[in-house]
Write the structure tokens for this entry.
Amino acid sequence: MHILHLYKDYPPVLGGIENHIQVLAEAQVRAGHRVTVLVCDPGPRTTVREENGVTVIRAGRLATAASMPLSLSQPLRLARLRPDIVHVHSPYPLGELANALLGRARATVITHHSDIVRQRGWLRLYGPLLRRVLARADRIIATSPRYIETSPWLWPVREKCVVVPLGVDHRRFRLPPSPYDGPPTLLFVGKLRYYKGVNTLLEALTELPGVYLEVVGEGPMGEEWAALAARLGLSDRVCFRGQVPDAELPNWYHRAHIFVLPANARAEAFGTVLLEAMASGLPCITTEVGSGTSWVVQDGVTGRVVPPRDPQALAAAIRQLLDDPDRRADMGRAGRARVEAEFTQERMIARVEEVYQEVFLPRITRISRKIKKSCPFVKFVANSDSRRSAAEGAESLVILPLVISSLVISHFLC
């Protein structure tokens, strides 16, 4: 199967969606698929490289507006490709529209990673088009059932939606050999963007004397939040570590007592860092913003869920867990068990493969029937075992060279 992933960026650009695409693409190559990733280059030139078996096309970028690349090359490259599955990672207006107008894939799968929350000007223009794009997709992947229930874009097309939670490498993020024995310490990991809510965590920390905070990550709010920490008199208890080397990240989860993700908007759609923390045996505190964060963290089981933008409620939840080491340990073990049962990368990859098969095999069957009816020169090899799957039947199709053009025409008609 030829799989095409369509988005704006790909590693070494840092980001949760970028990393997710890389994990999927490289696993799909190992499974025997032909995989192409079509994204935008930071610069104006188009490059094509083979990276760990994945063909990565980085189309030239003219500029960036409202966090979206402006590229003429990407839609043109897309029009030349003929994948079996195009997997669009949303929100990405350029990619979604380009695929709707120029895409030639047999089937379209969209992962709706997040609603567009802040760029309301874009939504007035793009909203009606997004509804059409979602309605035309063969399948829509959401990362949690909570997001389907609360998204104004997904709920109207919920019959097309399937839940495939994100996954984490649970062998890389492991339980510590022993509990952290330093002073009471909280940990935040992530891009320092407005919706992460670190400002609420800093305000909560003013009510927690003797409690320390490690902030791992960088982003546009970094300087503002560091200045806020100084104004609140927290500079001696809050350390902004910046971006740490990827190989060192698992160790940071072993240097804290509680992980906190105080999100304040639905732009925090899932919170993969919560999975990393749970896999590392940390109890997690997050917020109820109508997204996957309050589904990943089970309130009272693997951590606590509190209202967003409420420093007092956040401080109370932190204090409660810091005062009860046995409960923290129970939550840490429950979090690790939940990751192993539901959120491993292997489960995520297998579930995505199931979605591809569900949308691709019916298309192959329709193509086969159409060719068989329209062309007498097509020969089908008899299948001696009637119990063989539809996939094996599709692979047993033998088409004479004289009718290759019929297959191409059928591809466009289906």
In short: The chain has a mean pLDDT of 88. The two ends are 17 Å apart (CA to CA). DSSP finds 15 helices and 18 strands in the chain. Residues 185-343 form a domain with the Rossmann fold fold (CATH 3.40.50.2000).
